[in-house]
Amino acid sequence: MKKRILSLLLAAYLIINIILPATAANNLGGSCGRNLKWNLKNGTMTISGTGDMYEPEMALEEIPWYLNRELITTVIIEAGVNSICIQAFDGCDKLVSIFIPSTITRIGSSAFSGCDNLRDVYYADNESQWNSLLKQGEIELPAGVAIHFKNSGFLDVPADGWYAEPVSWAVAQGITTGTSSTTFSPNETCTNAQVITFIWRACGEPEPIIDNPFDDISEDKYYYEAALWAYANEMVTDSSFQASKPCTRSMAMTYLWKEAGSPGVVLDSQFTDINDNDDCALAVAWALEAEITDGTSDSTFSPATTCTRAHIITFLYRTFGEHDETESAPEITSDFLPIDVISGDISIPESNSDVDPDTDYLEITA
To answer: Number of C-alpha atoms within 13 angstroms, CB side, residue 314?
Structure first.
């Protein structure tokens, strides 16, 4: 009996001291101002609400997340927050990126002290305002930090990004609303539901004239009308729509080619990974001729490579938007910086190689 009691006590100890803290570490949070809250989950800390952050009076330990600073890789400060307190992120040496809204009017001294791996600051205002904030608080940033100013309303779309103009166009046309009010998530994997919805919106959201032919979608889905329209136009033909299936480069070109009416084209592919008898051969040849894509190199198209949201919006811009002959598909390189943001792996892509096939996402429609 005593052994059983001891075993139960040991089990309880393990749950309280090992299992629960490990679980809690994945989702931490609390108050950090009179009307502010912070939440830390999977490396991303979000600060939301209105007003100023509490200022530490005596010690760094008074900063709510200080004891968990080693877990923080990304900070998202939402609009409505007015200040960043003194030494707010002191010692956050795993911090890689921070999103700062235009509502911030004060940054406390030493706010970024010890943030040795901080590489990107996304600020939702202009350079002049940012410099004023730094001067006012005598702020020093770690060497090598890149500052990205507001573009297209999204903090994660740098003004000099290769996809910046397509994103601006897509937002203006109502093709995309982003993944939040401040993020576009350019490196999120684009799903089948998203790409079909994007194309449908680019075509003016035509009303579908058929009954639901699919066995895996219902009328309450945001992509319902787009999927039916795509089926009616023979862009998709299966009874299973597979909404969350990642969209590949060959799928994207095939959808756009079919939407254009499957125009004829001479099969003279420069790509060694596309054969004339491949299902996507005509679509790729058409897209190359229409300058929608240049491939991923002079000799490869990479048909099975998964598309990101930045890629798809760029393809749509080249198809439906104002065509710019100076824009060409970025070459494959490996110099992009992965950043964990919100609920998945979001990177700030610098090339055509930034693909994360394991990420899924549902497009926000409001």
So the answer is: 24
